[in-house]
Amino acid sequence: MNFITETTINWPLLYKITRAHGLRSFIYFIIKQHAIITTQQFEGRLQSSYDKIRRQNLTMAIAASKILSDLKKQGIVIIPYKGPFFCI
User: Fold this and answer.
1) Residue 12: its pLDDT value, please?
2) How many whole angstroms separate alpha carbon 22 and alpha carbon 87?
3) Integer CA distances (angstroms), 58 to 17, 42, 45, 46, 53, in order
4) Among 56, 50, 61, which Cα is nearest to 19's?
5) How many CB atoms lie within 10 A of CB 11?
6) What is the pLDDT of residue 77?
């Protein structure tokens, strides 16, 4: 944490890096969890991405649950190994 408070951070560049590597939601969670002080613009952009991804994950989880239920009715066993099931 000292590194962040003692270092000048290029927030726009950090946002580009988090976006390129699909880490926006994770970084937003860490910032909130540890009360890390950032710029308002950086945190706002991360929060917007975080909210969007949460909605997408919820939509995918609902669709996947319906598919799993339909397949189960047909006697087909499915083991999910990827996706929103692991975000819960």
Assistant:
1) 93
2) 14
3) 25, 24, 20, 18, 9
4) 50
5) 15
6) 83
Residue whose entry in the numeric block shows the structure tokens 């066993």: 77
Q: Which amino acid is at 16?
A: K
- State the DSSP string of 32-82: HHTT----HHHHHHHHHHHHHHHHHHHHHHHHHHHHHHHHHHTT------S
Q: Please tell me the predicted confidence (pLDDT) of residue 83.
A: 64
Comparing CA positions, the residue from 43, 19, 18 lying closest to residue 33 is 43
> Average pLDDT per run of 10 along the chain, which is 88 residues long?
79 94 92 91 94 88 87 86 62
pLDDT of residue 84: 62
Q: How far is CA 83 from CA 15, 28, 73, 75, in A?
A: 23, 19, 22, 23
